[in-house]
Amino acid sequence: MKHTKVIEKPQDLIEYRKKYSSIGFVPTMGALHAGHASLMKKASSENELTIASVFVNPTQFNNATDLEKYPKTFEADLKTCGENGVDVLFFPQFSDIYPDNYRFKLSENEFSKLLCGAHRPGHFDGVLTVVLKLLQITGCHRAYFGMKDYQQYKLISDMAKALFLPTEIIGLPTVREASGLAMSSRNMRLSAEGKDKAKLIYATITQKTSPDKAREILTANGFVVDYLEDIADRRYVAATLEGIRLIDNVEI
User: Fold this and answer.
1) Total tally of structural domains belonging to the chain
2) For residue 164, what are the domain limits?
3) Can you tell me the distance from the alpha carbon of 146 to that of 170, in angstroms, rounded to the nearest whole number?
4) What average pLDDT does the segment 235-248 reach?
5) What is the pLDDT of residue 132?
6) Alpha-carbon distance 180 to 18, whole Å?
7) Residues 166 and 192 occupy one common structural domain
8) Residue at a domain's end among 172, 198, 214
9) Are the C-beta atoms of residues 165 and 131 closer than 8 Å to each other?
10) What pLDDT does 64 receive?
11) Active-site residue (options: 3, 36, 123, 141)
12) 119 part of the active site
């Protein structure tokens, strides 16, 4: 198991990473699971230095309760980093990332207004702003994202191209539990019964049915469906169960 160095201050990380010619980066909000581990392994296999971050970013939460309840498991996260080839864990505080107190923000005016963006005002402004900051701080050549949140992955990939960032944005397939449920830090907040029921999301969106029919199936089983839509070649869903919002997507 690798010893993972913890760095808290952006300037310290900027200095530390200067001597490396190939840097891979995995941004996370902690509560790490096998999906994160797959990103870390990939980054470690392709780069001289692998950095992961744990930062629960307040600017992307439009629900204060959701932010408050987000799982925080630092010691376990550090262990996961060491087990999966991470050299540095970047663990900043709000004032480190937002010395301007979020005075400056990045917005996208098309895809970010659909799906999650339509139901979570300001969410993607927060996501894009923090990711841009993290890419600048880490100076990474490659950044790795899971495609469970495909809308997020697509927006970040498009942002990197639009702003001429030197970072290659790499998307890896969604890691799923044996039931098909997409791995998520939020899953640990579900009861055993809820977790069993949550597998219906994947089972339903992979059926050859219309979005309306799929939405009906989930609603009939106790889910509150924010959206279930087909856009281009992908079906997207966000559904709440036991007060916990779960997202997924599949190619169609």
Assistant:
1) 2
2) 5-172
3) 9
4) 97
5) 98
6) 41
7) no
8) 172
9) no
10) 86
11) 36
12) no
